[in-house]
Amino acid sequence: AGREMSNPQPLEEKVYDMSGARLALTLCVTKAREGSEADLDALEHMFQQLRFESTMKRDPTAQQFQEELEKFQQAIDTREDPVSCAFVVLMAHGKEGFLIGEDGEMVKLENLFEVLNNKNCRALRAKPKVYIMQACRGEQRDPGETVGGDAMVMMTDDSPHTIPTYTDALHVFSTMEGYIAYRHDQDGSCFIQILVEVFTERKGPILELLTEVTRRMAEAELVQEGKPRKANPEIQSTLRKKLYLQ
């Protein structure tokens, strides 16, 4: 009972070392996805500015999504120089848990996430792996509500000797589970365009930048088939430290 109230200690800032190589792989189905080229251009600009070595592949089949990612993992693990961080951008039609390849077949997102985890990619063990998905996750559409909300982010501290298999990953979905994602025929997708804008113009830890992306997306007025729609990204983080790109 009679405990004195003490001021909580501020969290000591632990930051990922970003001095090594930064690698990016973008796999994008452009067929029947108008506006994809605008997204690819924006991403290329972003990766240049953030000093990433970037590889882009257009129109992968479902199997090639898996193969290209495994090739990327092998290239990372066989590099001589230290690697700091990997970004994987996946753009396609999709439904919850799956992406649809150029051939109409489906690939499981979980299988793609697994390729770079702490067990399967040694060079990225304990290092940040960021997956960015621009794809539908279902058929639902959000007309919006008249109130505001906030994004919540969980962070865990360092552990000494062993590390969980699935830490240090950040999964950024363009839309909520079950919902469709929006793309403009000329301008590209609202999500990729805003994400590139924020990542290139702002400094700060990536989770703060993603909160700003969420804010801007929530404000964006989207129209689909003449009806007003709202969309927001969903962020799943197991990062253990702050990740600064600038």
From TrEMBL:
Residues 159-246 form the Caspase family p10 domain. InterPro entries: Caspase-like_dom_sf (IPR029030), Caspase_cys_AS (IPR033139), Pept_C14 (IPR002398), Pept_C14_caspase (IPR011600), Pept_C14_p10 (IPR002138), Pept_C14_p20 (IPR001309), Pept_C14A (IPR015917). One of its GO terms (molecular function) is cysteine-type endopeptidase activity. GO terms for biological process: cell differentiation; positive regulation of neuron apoptotic process; proteolysis. Residues 33-140 form the Caspase family p20 domain. It holds the Pfam family Peptidase_C14. SMART domains: CASc. It is found in: Cytoplasm; Nucleus. Keywords: Cytoplasm, Differentiation, Hydrolase, Nucleus, Protease, Thiol protease, Zymogen. One of its GO terms (cellular component) is cytosol. CDD domains: CASc. Heterodimer of a large and a small subunit, both processed from the precursor; the mature active form is a p17/p10 dimer and the intermediate form a p20/p8 dimer. Belongs to the peptidase C14A family. This is Caspase-14. The lineage of its organism: Eukaryota, Metazoa, Chordata, Craniata, Vertebrata.
